[in-house]
Amino acid sequence: MYTTTPQSKQTIESLWRLEKIILDTLDFNQVVQNIVDCVLTELGYLQLGYRIVVLALADDQSNSLKRVSISQTDEAKKALEITPVPFHDITIPLSETGNLCIKCVTDKQSQTTHDWKDILCPPYTVDEARQVQQAIGIKTSMIFPVIYHGVARGVMIFSMLKDESEVSDSELDLLRGFTEVVGIAVQNARLYSDLQKTSADLDSANKRLQQLDKAKDEFVSLASHELRTPMTAIKSYVWMVLNDKSGPKTKDYLQLVFNSTERLIHLVNDMLDISRIESGRVQLKLAPFDMPGLLAQIVDEFKARAGDKKIKLELELKEHLPPVTADRDKVMQVLENLVGNSLKFTDSGGKITLSAKADQNFLETSVSDSGRGISEDEMDKLFTKFERGGSPLTTLSEPGTGLGLYLCKQYIELHKGTISVKSKLGQGSTFTFTLPLQ
Amino acid sequence: MADAARILVVEDDQALRDLYVLILKDAGFAVDEAADGEAALAAMQKGGYDLVLLDIVLPKLDGIKILEHLKTSPPDALNKKIVVLSNLGHDEIISNAMALGSVGYLIKSDYTPDQIVLRVREFLGGK
Question: Which of A47, A149, A172, B40 is deepest in the core (most CB within 10 A)?
Answer without folding.
Answer: B40
